[in-house]
Amino acid sequence: MKHFITGLELTKNEVRNIFDLIEDIKTNPILYSQSLKGKSIVTLYEKESLRTRLSFDIGINKLGGHAVYLDNQNGVIGKRESVKDFALNISTWADCIVARVNQNDTLVTLSEHSSVPVINSLCNLYHPCQALADFMTLKETFGRLDGLKLTYLGEGNNVSHSLMLLSAMFGVNFYAITPKNKEPNKTVFEKSKDLASKHNSSIQLSNDILDSKDSDVLYSDSWVSMGDNTTLEDAKTLYQSYQVNQKLVNFSKASAVLHCQPAHRGYEITSEVIDGNKSKVLQQAKNRLYAQNALLLKLIGKI
């Protein structure tokens, strides 16, 4: 049994197999329509969600499975009863636990005590399902991953961490361009650099927007992470120069622009860019469903 917490639980070959499986599910959906027949997946949410909730719920249904939604109306995880007891009880009934939580520690405890796979659908440190969908989108767009330059702009956060780790695994040259003191987590950065040294890729941190030059991909995310009480107007003072706009797209020479959404138009990205011909944002969102379905089949299916 494997969990999927950081994303590194899967080897490079296993992720490649998931990409192949995504392509086959898209091409031959009827072959997979009963792949999770009789399987029940509990989806836990401490955080609000649109894309994660719908892509998992609809995706599980397309595979013939049953998605059970649990939100905070059942009490904050670990408050009404321990996270350990949550895991022990749920895994007596369900075939998998998908959890979108505030803290990575919650996922670690769930995985330690669950007898079924636990999938991280978002936490404070990682967003690995998003990264799977993003890299599938890049593979579809460029026909390759090795040697691409992916430039992330904004706050060093869970999305940047997962992109960094998968970039290191697949030979993508990753740049995180952030304001000073808003860089990605140092531990994740060092882990990514160590992994990159084995796969002929480069992981770089910068505060200089000029380092976006000669990028293949620009990646934007919200200036304010979910749960942060900072207003967008307050964040604008710090992040305005990191906005993904047409001027930056032209300067960087990027041929693709990604954003994990929700997007705040006119702040971290302009409408001109997100609606433009280089935007792959809706393709990313669509690939969330297929990437997660392939992951579920890998962890609890017969594939």
From TrEMBL:
It holds the Pfam family OTCace. It comes from the Bacteria. The keyword Transferase applies. One of its GO terms (molecular function) is amino acid binding. Its EC number is 2.1.3.3. Keywords: Transferase. Signal peptide: none annotated. This is Ornithine carbamoyltransferase. It comes from Paraphotobacterium marinum.
